[in-house]
Amino acid sequence: MNSWVVYLDLYRESMLHKLTSQVLDQFNIQGEAVPLPGGQETTVQYEDIVLKPCENTGEWTGLAPILSQLEPDGYRIAMPVQAQDGQWVVDGWLATQFIEGTPGYAGNEEEALTACRYFHRDLNQVYSSHECPDWLTSEDSIWRKADKLAWGEVPLTDEFDVVCEFLNPIVEGITPIDLPNQITHGDPGHDNVLFAPNQAPAIIDIEPYWRPSGYALAMMLADGIAWEGSKPSTLTLAQDEPYIGQLLLRAIMFRLTVSVLGSGPESLARKYSVYEPVLQWAFT
Predict the structure, then answer these.
(1) Final residue belonging to a domain, choices 49, 67, 97
(2) Which residues is 208 bridged to in the sheet?
(3) Residue 273: which H helix or E strand, with range?
(4) What confidence tens digit (pLDDT) does each residue in 23-72 have?
(5) d(CA 262, CA 237)
(6) How many domains would you assign to the chain?
(7) CATH code (residue 28)
(8) Model confidence, pTM
(9) Secondary element (H or E) of residue 112
(10) Of the residues 97, 120, 146, the one at which a domain ends
């Protein structure tokens, strides 16, 4: 059996073992646990509540109260659930309302982009400060490092030398832009938009970053073409978005540097190839 599969099985078993009665009591949960697919297979559903391990308590404690103030219109989100003692995380677990839907971005790109726009509009109204919240700058991870690399806030380090032929043209193509930052969903693509009949798209698993709202659209478009079967022509859906070409370059730079930091430079060639149609459009 693949060692990574073994690791995930052990991790899942370990996390589910830590799902104590205190967690269930604090979130007022009853019923039988139903494991949900995706992620590391540690997410479980209890009737209308979903529990999942919290990877960053400070971040979720800052984000959850903001999300809970949203009044979704044109989109849906899995609303955070607060524990009886007022906390948002109990013994390493967070809770959200269950939200219906299945992935299906390809063919629904326009609806997904519209929902993403509405979500970020409302998010900016709830948190309208021009200052990045402290809880959003505390994490030190490969994703935060890749984010800073993509936005030119730190230079490429020696570990990227062997893939400079892929990354240098993107770095050279990135130029300054003048857009306001806000709390932004940094991973709105892949399986993080759900669709259900006669309902607005649902935006889930919100990974907060402090970037322009158009960056989320760029990430959604780029990932949709690279991984979900969308056609390059869907890029025209955002052609009027300010600096969309520059935002696409940054989104792809983020994905490529995460790949190198997380899986090593040998992973980059294939990932670069699936983003090539997007890069060609962004450079025109």
Answers:
(1) 97
(2) 185
(3) helix 268-283
(4) 999 999 988 889 987 656 689 999 999 999 999 999 999 999 999 999 99
(5) 31
(6) 2
(7) 3.30.200
(8) 0.91
(9) helix 109-126
(10) 97
